[in-house]
Design a protein that fits this description.
This protein is α/β, with parallel strands linked by helices. The chain folds into 2 domains: 4-190 and 305-395, Aminopeptidase; 193-302, Alpha-Beta Plaits. Helices cover 36% and strands 26% of the residues. The radius of gyration is 24 Å and the shape is elongated. The N and C termini lie close together (11 Å). The mean pLDDT is 97.
Length: 398
């Protein structure tokens, strides 16, 4: 049932603080920091929490976890998460809030997530006398870099004392129009592993192949053969992706090198298949190299697990979003083979990760995340703050 009074109050507060949220977002955008180095960002968030009188503690060096408790008695706890790090990208936008840290850019919207959660914190602080339960605010470092700030914060106890019944996160999506949000229950985002391969052969003159062991030829066979892991070994009903994006063979037109270096990624949505695929890829690559007279060093660096939105929780949160925004502004999402370290929360707690629309074609805001021209329609920050506050209080049972 829609709580019209609660919805009205939150909407009013979101409108009142919108310019502050935008100002905070622009400050963060102009001062981006890389993963595990978010020192100024962390200090900025801490200062804003101090202004609101919200207690917090530091975790994972640059991370923060804060608590807002309602004044009515209740043992329910819900956690809201925002990530804070930026990417090593040179910003191409010519805007007043353009990055001042050359070579670093908030190209994935984490400035939006952090400023939005600060806005949500302000709304919740204003409503403390009217709700029961506790909201845990997680300001997390290093979503963009292994091992992922989420894994570090979980190890340090971010989901304990108090333990939340649900963990909720939002992420910008430039494919969705500002004013709308998107949800998907169940498996949503992929696990991600990094693959590093060195193929060793015996270099020499390109005109005398009989005297060489050609690592380029071996590497070519390996790349092609490994695609059979996805096309002929994986269950076709299970999403799997294997891509190589880097191949270095420092030879010349008439020089066969001694070795070839390759980097790639493997992504899927099943942990059992993930382990099996690792073993098969390594065995196949090493076997091909040996059969062709060379050797192969095949190393897999485990990345984030797959992200699963707990179905009951996600349907509840989606319902709250429909109440707050209207059904016409809540969309269905397809699976997404990108990865997110929010997945760590989803593996150990009931979790819901939804998408915030930030696209505005009339304003020319259409660029994808992780690009030098990424930006957002800042009108979406009104929704990002108010909706999360409404979801949190409804999830607590208010």
């Amino acid at each position: 049932m829609v709580n019209e009074t609660l919805k009205h109050k939150i909407s009013q507060l979101a409108n009142q603080i919108q310019q502050d949220v935008i100002s905070n977002r622009q400050h963060l955008h102009a001062h981006p920091e890389l993963s595990f180095h978010e020192y100024e960002t962390s200090a900025f968030v801490a200062a804003k929490l101090d202004e609101l009188g919200i207690p917090y503690q530091k975790m994972a060096d640059t991370g923060l976890v804060a608590l807002i408790s309602g004044e009515k008695p209740s043992g329910n706890v819900v956690a809201l998460r925002a990530d804070m790090d930026a990417l090593p990208i040179i910003e191409a936008n010519e805007v007043p809030y353009k990055s001042k840290n050359v070579g670093i850019m908030h190209a994935c919207g984490h400035d939006v997530h952090t400023s939005s959660l600060l806005g949500t914190a302000k709304i919740l602080s204003e409503l403390k006398s009217e709700f029961a339960g506790t909201v845990k605010l997680i300001f997390q470092p290093a979503e963009e870099k292994l091992p992922g700030g989420a894994s570090v914060m979980i190890k340090e106890g971010v989901l304990e004392n108090p333990k939340p019944q649900a963990v909720i996160g939002q992420h910008v999506m430039p494919l969705i129009e500002a004013g709308k949000v998107g949800f998907r229950s169940g498996k949503y985002m992929a696990s991600t592993d990094e693959i590093y391969v060195t193929v060793h052969g015996k270099g020499g003159h390109g005109a005398q192949p009989q005297q060489n062991i050609d690592p380029i030829l071996i590497a070519s066979h390996i790349i092609i053969a490994l695609q059979q892991i996805v096309s002929r070994v994986a269950d076709p009903r299970l999403p799997s992706v294997l891509s190589f994006g880097k191949v270095i063979a420092n030879g010349a037109t008439n020089v066969i090198p001694n070795e070839v270096y390759m980097e790639g990624t493997f992504r899927t949505m099943d942990e059992e298949w993930r382990e099996k695929a690792h073993q098969k890829m390594k065995k196949m690559a090493e076997g091909i190299a040996e059969a062709m007279g060379g050797t192969c060093d095949f190393n897999i660096v485990r990345g984030y697990p797959f992200l699963i939105n707990e179905e009951k929780l996600t349907e509840q949160v989606r319902g709250f979003a429909e109440e707050y925004l209207g059904k016409e502004n809540v969309l269905d999402l397809d699976i997404w083979m990108a990865a997110e370290d929010f997945a760590y929360y989803s593996q150990v707690a009931d979790a819901c990760f939804y998408r915030l629309g930030t696209r505005n074609e009339e304003k020319g805001i259409i660029s994808s995340v992780h690009t030098p021209t990424f930006d957002v329609d800042e009108n979406s920050l009104n929704i990002s703050t108010g909706l999360m506050a409404y979801i949190a209080l409804k999830q607590l049972g208010n």
